[in-house]
Every structure is written in C-alpha cells, then in structure tokens.
Amino acid sequence: MSQPGNDHGGKALAALLDLERLEENLYRGQSPATTWQRVFGGQVVAQSLVATQRTAPEGHLVHSLHGYFMRPGDTEVPIIFQVERLRDGRSFSTRSVRAIQHGQPIFIMTASFQTEEEGFQHQDAMPDVPSPEELASSDIINDSKNAPAPVRNYWMRERPIEIRPVDLENFLWRKKPGGRQNIWIRANGPSPHGRDYQAAFLAYMSDMTLLDATLYPHQSSVFSDHVQAASLDHAVWFHRPFDIEDWLLYSQESPSASGSRGFAHGRIFSRDGTLVASVAQEGLIRIRDRARPFYNKP
Fold this sequence. Notes:
298 residues; alpha+beta; 12-stranded antiparallel sheet; single chain; 6 helices
C-alpha cells in the first residue's frame, strides 16, 4: 500500500475512521482527497479494525490483528468492509474482515479481542534516545526541501500524524547503512480518547515508515525511483493502554531481506518507557535498476 495522503489533524482522521453502517456486519469507509494513486495501507488496516470493533462484544478489546494486502486500494471509490463473527467466548472473541473494492478484496484481516485480565508482567526496555522536545519540529520540513522530489512532496504535506525522527539526517539521506530507526510520533491535534479509537489510531500509524526500515541496511528508501515497494502483510499486538496525544517512540529494525522481500518489526513505547505495542511487516522491495544507487545529499 502507499503512503498517507493529505489530511488535517486528529479530527479528520477520526472522521475517516467513523465507518458508515450499511447492514449487519457490513460497513463502508471513504479515503481522503489525495494525489497518491493507492490507498495508504495504515488507513485500510485501521478501518478494518474499526469494522471488527463494531461487532465485538462489550468489554472485549483488541489484542492482536493480522492482515494481508492483496490489491492496491483505489482512492476514488469507497471501501466496503465485510465482517465475519468467527467466535465469541467468555474471555476471547475473534473476527475476520474483508476490505472490498470493485468486487474484489484488497485486504483481509483477522482480529482477536480479550477482556482485561491481571497476570504476569515483563517487557523490553525502551531505547535510550533524545526526547521529542530536543528534536525541532520544523527540521524535517526544512531539511526535506533539498531532498529528491518524492521525499520533498511527501513531507511537505499536512497529515494527521506528527513525526520527529531521532536521526533526521539518516532518515532523509541514508548516509549510514544498517541500524535501528527510532521515530517519535503522536496525533496531530485533538483526538477522541476511547480505547477503541486509540487502538485504531495506532493501527493507522503502525504502517508509517516501517517498510522503509528494510532499506536502511542498503542506504536506500521506499521513495527511491529504483525500488518498487509495497506492504504485503501486517500484524500488530496491543500490549497496554496509551495516550495518542502524547509522544510514542516507534523503534524499528529489519533482521532480514531476501527474495525481493524485506521483513521489519517495530516496538512502540510511551514516553515513560512502557511498551504499548509490537508490530511486524513483510513487504516487497524489488530493485528496478541495479546499476543506479539511491540518492546522496549534495
């Protein structure tokens, strides 16, 4: 799926995720006005999650979702979400959903829900990185003005998500191969506070920049004209509650790439170091022209 198009803050994203109910287990979603030719993958993941949430029993909260991108989404027509209620138990419930356009599925997903329980607790530590306040909010816009057109056009857009990369120079210019990508991220403007919306927001933002991490070891990017990139599958595990209006650290790395596919996983931490979610994704990273490298800053 492609990157997100133009949007105007948390209210617009909330409206995008407020699906229209057509019939029992059947919903319709829209896409924002955009110059991108494909629906942003995070959008269809989040809307699919909202559709399943609308059918989940009261008190059951999503703890994981697993989906496959099957076809590019068309930004010009609505998306129909068809939910199947697979199981309802006392503690767990399971739903599947198909996102359909032009009579064919563009995305399929299974989501599992659970009532809240007490139990064992442990987690990985958050990486030691500068706070978001130490990273100037305007730097990514200013620095990207001299970047190649695809990068510049993307970052000059308004969006419902505010992003502050920890290593901005490498984020834009890929000067160092390998390593972990750390990005601070939060909702751009006021947003609803319900647990269902918080989870849908995280599902939306979880697709942002993750596939790009698979190209860090090669000093390349999904914005390169020499790379054909697209998300193939996507999974999110929701561990603990969080606040999307405060900063979340999205720490990403890629342990493997082969067969024109790149695999990346990410951990999402709240500001206080609480691990709130884990994400995994595999995507197509096909080389279009092996003779030409990715751009370098002049």
